[in-house]
Amino acid sequence: MKKIKRSIVLALVIIAAFFQNPVVFAKNITSSIVTDVNFKADTTANGGQIITEIDSSKKFILSYEFSIPKELIVLGGDRASFSVPPEIRYNNIDMTDVPLKTSDGLIFGTASIKNGQVEITFNTNVEQGISMAYFDIWANFNANNITIDEMNVIPFETINGTVEKEILITQSNTGSGSGAWITKNGKYEGKQDPKDTLT
């Protein structure tokens, strides 16, 4: 009787070993997808042009370009993450679950950004391979970490290691300039000598 019980238990263990569901762990492919980063005047979808000079008070698009070839074997549930450089002011950027699309409109994942960290989660569409995609972030510069009226070199993490992008950040003209700030309306009758006092 004990032999029969032992045989049944052993058979159940062997069967369970053959039919168990494999555990698949999501992987992080951080350095394997970003191919380039550029400063743009508008979103990629709107034909935003790459810029190399910008007024310090202006917003711009920080455009991450990436590709995910099939041979990389990225599966739904896998993640990628990378940091936004400290020269970029990111404390005003807080996005959650932004759909990531190819130029054909295929959604292959979502991106979230908080505290300067971009987190991407892929869905099963990524398994087809993504030849080219963009992730655009509206941003501006962190005044504490840039030099005004000089060429700034800003490093970005990419598949090819650190890529340094140059951009000239000029002083904002806000609040200064020439021209009439205050005007007065009225009828001018020739020989008047109008005088106004501003206090």
UniProtKB/TrEMBL annotation:
Membrane topology category = Peptidoglycan-anchor
Give the Gene3D superfamilies listed for this entry: 2.60.40.1280
Where is composition skewed (Basic and acidic residues) in this entry? 186-199
List residues of the SDR-like Ig domain: 54-147
Where in the cell does this protein reside?
A: Secreted, Cell wall
Q: InterPro entries in the record, alphabetically?
A: Adhesion_dom_sf, Fibrogen-bd_dom1, SDR_Ig
In which broad location class does this protein mainly occur, judging by the first location in its UniProt entry?
secreted
Q: Which GO terms describe its biological process?
A: cell adhesion
User: Region Disordered: start and end of each range?
Assistant: 174-199
> Which UniProt keywords are present, listed alphabetically?
Cell wall, Peptidoglycan-anchor, Secreted, Signal
Q: For this UniProt entry, which residues form the secretion signal?
A: 1-26
Q: Which SUPFAM superfamilies match?
A: Bacterial adhesins (SSF49401)
What name appears for this protein in its UniProt entry? LysM domain-containing protein
Which species is this UniProt entry from? Brochothrix campestris FSL F6-1037
Task: List the top taxonomic levels of the source.
Answer: Bacteria, Bacillati, Bacillota, Bacilli, Bacillales
